[in-house]
Specification:
The chain has 164 residues and is α+β, with helices and mostly antiparallel strands. Helix content is 26%, strand content 18%. It has a domain of 108 residues: Alpha-Beta Plaits (2-Layer Sandwich). The chain is elongated and about 95 Å long. The chain starts with 11 loop residues before the first helix and ends with a helix. The structure holds iron/sulfur cluster (2 copies). The site of one iron/sulfur cluster has 14 residues, from helix 4.
């Protein structure tokens, strides 16, 4: 147990805290030359791996078509009731598409269940972690924000196929 000296027993240097200041400076200098684990965000962005679960997005094929067939499974499994899908018929036989597909990002908990149940690999977790809203309406993402070209989602799709 450390024994505290009485004031009259302290040297002059101890009274002006010089040894403690020197110890603090040495600690600071030592830290300056150690590897950095923090990023200077937002100037330097975090680059996640394929296993990262950012906001869910819809896959847009190379020809601009959407993979989603509006089966509604993701909406039914979502524990946060964040997904709303409305189906409509396409010109192709027995094919449907989501006339309306919305995710309420204030509700989404990034669990990835929608991605797991989707039979078409049409909804996947992206690397996008930058979400900021100024009102509740802005947090409801429609297809204009949800559809992402497949080329930007390859890391995640490769990761998903590696363990399925
Ligand atoms: S990640 Fe989870 S909470 Fe978010 S939309 Fe998908 S199922 Fe719902
Ligand atoms: S994203 Fe997948 S699970 Fe959800 S409605 Fe579309 S096809 Fe069905």
């Amino acid at each position: 147990m450390a024994v505290r000296k009485r004031l009259k027993d302290l040297t002059f240097l101890e009274r002006i805290y010089l040894p403690e200041i020197a110890k603090g400076l040495a600690q600071t200098l030592g830290q300056m030359f150690k590897p950095h684990f923090t990023l200077e965000y937002p100037e330097v962005k975090f680059q996640p791996e394929g296993s990262y679960r950012g906001r869910p997005v819809l896959v847009e094929e190379e020809d601009g078509s959407e993979r989603c067939v509006a089966c509604g499974l993701c909406s039914r499994v979502c524990p946060a009731l964040a997904i709303e899908v409305q189906a409509a018929e396409t010109d192709r036989e027995k094919e449907r598409y989501p006339e309306k597909f919305e995710i309420n990002m204030l509700r989404c908990i990034f669990c990835g269940l929608c991605e797991e149940v989707c039979p078409e690999e049409a909804i996947v977790m992206s690397k996008d972690y930058e979400l900021a809203f100024t009102n509740r309406e802005a947090a409801i993402y429609g297809k204009d924000k949800l559809l992402v070209p497949i080329a930007q989602l390859q890391d995640r799709i490769t990761f998903l196929r590696s363990y399925k």
